[in-house]
Design goal:
5-stranded mixed sheet, 14 helices, 12 strands, Rossmann fold, binds nicotinamide-adenine-dinucleotide
Length: 420
């Protein structure tokens, strides 16, 4: 099949992972293409009036991977490197993730190629609203429900909800998740992904017999996922010794004071320059000795270049697609490293997004305790299933998680049949 529309390193990586699992599961060739190829992709030119009066056109995308089990679900990314191929890969991973944790969704993803940090608040709002307007034919609470991802946040979700609702003539909170609580967002959604990462790290430590007290963690990407994971792991007694963002990293083997670090980030917009720490590059940070390494930034960070040299006991993938298949092959020779694969490790976000959507559809809202209790129960189930399946079949945790997710979608497609 000609993949030229999506051709990109990240889409090729997602296909490579899929093909390995499909070989293992003996999925017939015809079913493979149906499972792999995204169902729909929308590409939109987004004209935005800039503050200086000029008009700039940004490219935006939304890819819906499969529609077999319900509406599609996935984040919206604002980042200069966004391409339709990257968005398609992220949509495919969302499909396997939702199936793994048992949510009634197919995967989707969206994005606009832009640098949100270089836009004023007004420009960001106009870009978000025009992009949403272009997506209206393909999104909706029963069709496709966006959420935050890199470069987007609660405010961006509020503008999406408002733009969609104005077109419909009434408030439609169920069109996006990750909204402010006041607009129908769920308690605990903002923290869900990072808390989920920390929960699974503690389960992996139980499995490996590593006590939290005295353990150390290194986090690449101190954004929503990375910063909440850091604070949650610190509460468990784990010492956070290094963190980074797009500007660089900081390291203190004695442990970073996260309260002071969060004040520094709020004031300066970056972790760099934090006192009582030494500067490290993002490349150096990944090689620091630690118990837990959490990539929580972008794809393809653990590669064949550095996989043999990372020095952690647990690789907890907060980001989507942080480890390439070439790096996976190297990690397969390093059984001392326990991998919490992305589609399991960061699934707390979409789980609580699902809870938010359910609450919006019923207009009946839960306490934070209820949300957390249900979140940890689903994570526990997915963790144990993935671990047991991996042990039973002698495969890696990634292979196990992907095969559980892919199997569900494959079976659902077989049962529904092929129309006409
Ligand atoms: P975010 O925009 O809040 O934070 C991203 C962080 O990564 C920022 O600190 C940014 O400076 C940093 N970063 C960017 N480029 C970098 C680089 N080259 N090196 C080091 N750091 C870099 O985004 P987020 O929502 O925290 O998402 C982070 C990752 O987690 C993404 O892979 C995303 O797809 C994944 N994820 C997010 C959610 C969610 O609920 N937000 C859920 C599941 C998965």
């Amino acid at each position: 099949m000609n993949l030229h529309l999506y051709d990109s390193p990240t889409f090729r990586m997602a296909c490579q992972q899929f093909d390995l699992v499909a070989d293992f599961m003996n999925i017939p060739e015809a079913a493979r293409e149906r499972l792999k190829m995204p169902k729909r992709a929308l590409s939109v030119a987004v004209p935005v009036r800039m503050d200086d009066g000029s008009v700039k056109v940004f490219m935006g995308y939304r890819v819906q991977h499969h529609l077999t089990l319900g509406p599609t679900k996935g984040g919206i990314r604002f980042h200069p490197d966004v391409t339709v191929g990257e968005v398609a890969a992220l949509a495919m991973w969302m499909s396997w993730k939702c199936a793994l944790v048992g949510l009634p969704y197919g995967g989707a993803k969206g994005g606009v190629a832009c640098d949100p940090r270089s836009l004023s608040a007004g420009e960001l709002e106009r870009l978000t609203r025009r992009y949403t307007q272009e997506l209206i034919p393909v999104i909706g609470p029963q069709v496709d429900i966006p959420a935050p991802d890199v470069g987007t946040n609660e405010q961006v979700m509020a503008w999406i909800m408002d733009t969609y609702s104005l077109q419909m003539g009434h408030a439609v909170p169920g069109v996006v998740t990750g909204k402010p609580v006041l607009l129908g967002g769920s308690l605990g959604r903002r923290e869900a992904t990072g808390r989920g990462v920390a929960y699974l790290v503690s389960r992996a430590m139980d499995t490996l017999g590593i006590p939290a007290q005295g353990a150390t963690a290194v986090i690449q990407g101190y954004g929503n996922v990375g910063s909440v994971a850091a604070v949650s792991m610190a509460k468990q007694g784990i010492r956070i010794i290094a963190v980074s963002d797009a500007f660089g990293g900081i390291h203190n083997p004695a442990g970073l004071d996260l309260n002071r670090l969060n004040e520094h980030v709020a004031a300066k917009g970056t972790v760099t320059g934090f006192p009582e720490s030494e500067a490290v590059t993002n490349a150096e940070l990944l090689l620091l000795p630690c118990d837990v390494l959490v990539p929580a930034a972008l794809e393809r960070q653990i590669t064949e270049e550095n996989a043999a040299r990372i020095r952690c006991r647990i690789l907890a993938e907060g980001a989507n697609g942080p480890t390439t298949p070439e790096a996976d092959a190297i990690l397969a020779q390093r059984p001392e490293i326990f991998v919490l694969p992305d589609i399991l490790c960061n699934s707390g976000g979409v789980i609580v997004s699902y809870f938010e959507w359910v609450q919006d559809l019923q207009s009946f809202f839960w306490s934070e305790g209820e949300v957390l209790d249900k979140l940890f129960r689903l994570l526990e189930q997915a963790y144990m299933q993935t671990l047991n399946h991996a042990r039973k079949n002698g495969v890696s945790m990634r292979f196990s998680a992907l095969s559980l997710g892919i199997r569900k979608v494959h079976e659902a497609k077989s049962i529904r049949g092929l129309y006409p």
